[in-house]
Design goal:
ACCD_DCysDesulf, globular, binds pyridoxal-5'-phosphate, alpha/beta, 12 helices, Rossmann fold
Length: 307
């Protein structure tokens, strides 16, 4: 490593050997078939064993842009994004710093997700919730970087959604051009949908299922598209009815639905995002939201964490 913390790192796209384009699989499910709807699964969960789904598409452009500098990013104690960043750091020999929400966690044993990050070499820096909320404010960010001893780091926002990530996700849309009428994806920060919609053909539609409660996401997606492409792109909208109470909230009905989907199709169903997406699509199909003859593609953006 040189004085400014840079290392000469290999090109992430070749070094990480992704499975791209990700497979597109048709599944037989009578809840769709009886309404004349075909269901395809876009298996982004198979892109890479550690950089799964949208993590690959969002992180790799940022890893290239970091050009060997340490990479610093943010997340909660169960963040998939922190885990993926830590794994990428290990695979590419880059140092990573994870800024974790919750100062109180600093004095407790690490949960399995954070323990995995640490095992992958990520340096964890815990901050209080109020500072965390203001982390995009330039003065707060500068103070956090100083306190984390990471002033030269390349900073990736929470959830990994910046303009580069959104442009990376445009490739997901491009892989699905003319393969489906409607492409649906679960949304957290909205970066994946922002890119996906931009990559689709003009007669295709992108549908986002937010897993957080709040109704603020459409504005944020528009902002992300403007930062990545200069203006709003593609045809997209959101259906806000399937968050099940908010992030990481579930119900016995949703759990039973996900168990049943796994048993029917042999697909491991990630519970925080993908279960809500698939539940939403079954409900919308049963409501008659898609005309007969519609081909629907569901993006499988993640897989369950190993126990
Ligand atoms: C498995 C999974 N699916 C979907 C998303 C949502 O992605 P985005 O934040 O780009 O909306 C995430 C969050 O990063 C995720 O971990």
């Amino acid at each position: 490593m040189s004085d400014n913390g840079r290392v000469s790192s290999p090109d992430p796209t070749t070094a990480l050997r992704p499975r791209l384009p990700s497979p597109l699989q048709e599944i037989e499910d009578d809840r769709f078939a009886r309404h004349g709807v075909r269901l395809l699964l876009k298996r982004d969960d198979l892109i890479h064993p550690q950089l799964i789904g949208n993590k690959w598409r969002k992180l790799v452009p940022n890893l290239s842009a970091a050009a060997g500098r340490p990479l610093l990013t943010f997340g909660g104690a169960y963040s998939n994004h922190l885990r993926a960043t830590a794994a990428a750091g290990r695979l590419l020999g880059l140092s990573t710093v994870g800024v974790v929400r919750g100062q109180e966690l600093a004095d407790r044993p690490l949960n399995p997700a954070l323990a995995r990050c640490a095992a992958d070499g990520m340096r964890l820096h815990f901050i209080d919730r109020s500072t965390y909320r203001h982390k995009t404010d330039p003065a707060t960010l500068a103070a956090v970087l100083r306190a984390a001893d990471a002033e030269g780091a390349y900073v990736v926002p929470e959830g990994g959604s910046n303009a580069l990530a959104v442009r990376g996700c445009r490739e997901l849309g491009a892989e699905l051009r003319d393969r489906a009428d409607v492409v649906a994806v679960a949304c957290g920060t909205g970066g994946t949908l922002a890119g996906l919609a931009a990559g689709l053909a003009p007669d295709q539609h992108a549908l986002g299922i937010p897993v957080l409660k709040g109704g603020f996401l459409a504005e944020e997606i528009q902002r992300l598209q403007e930062s990545a492409f200069g203006d709003r792109r593609g045809h997209w909208d959101l259906d806000d009815r399937f968050h099940f109470g908010g992030y990481a909230r579930t119900t016995p009905g949703l759990d039973a639905f996900a168990d049943d989907f796994e048993a029917r199709h042999g697909l491991p169903v990630e519970r925080l995002y993908v279960a809500k997406l698939l539940y939403g699509l079954v409900s919308l199909t049963e409501e008659g939201a898609f005309p007969r003859g519609t081909t629907l593609a569901a993006v499988i953006t993640g897989s369950p964490l190993p126990a």
